[in-house]
Amino acid sequence: MEFCILGLLLLKPQSIYQLNLAFQNSLSLFYQASLGAISIAVKKLLAQKLIKIHSQQNEGRKTKVYRVTLKGRSHFFEQYKQPLPQGKFEQTILARVFFLGLVLQNESRLIVLRSLNEAVNQAMKKLQSVQQSLEQFTVAPDLLTIFKYQQSTLVYGINSYQLALDWLSALLKEEEGSK
Fold first, then answer.
1. How is residue 85 annotated by DSSP?
2. How far apart are CA 17 and CA 50, in angstroms?
3. Which CATH architecture has domain 1-79?
4. pTM, two decimal places
5. Nearest to 95 by CA among 152, 36, 147, 22
6. pLDDT tens digit string along 105-118?
7. For the chain, how are helix, strand and coil distributed in percent, rounded to 5?
């Protein structure tokens, strides 16, 4: 969540409520966040000095608006170099692509897209390996129905990764063409 908040604040300084609206209106496709969770993440970013408060007058009252510090900017772009976490694989890929336009250099965007593409490709190969090993597995007749649906989730994962690979490949091709 901190990555997304930094990305939103790099786009423009915002209040907690504006951040909440941004999550609801743009990031909610792949990232659900409550106002409370956003508040906690903002406090964490403040404590790490990745963002700072900038008060602003709005219709006679002060509003806390948050801005990214130089340290926060650096931290944001460093996240693109980090491996994808296993638990939030798809969510992290979508967040990184969502904010990829903030990466100004074409070559850097290409590196990110290639890295994401490779990570998805490796994850898909792992699932395909599991699928191949299950084809040789003998299932007890009373467990066939359970096994069928468990295996169908594996097929979903493989298809999902294939869709991600197709999407990332198209983005890569487009980015390579704009060099």
1. P
2. 19
3. Orthogonal Bundle (1.10)
4. 0.84
5. 22
6. 989 999 999 999 99
7. 70, 10, 20
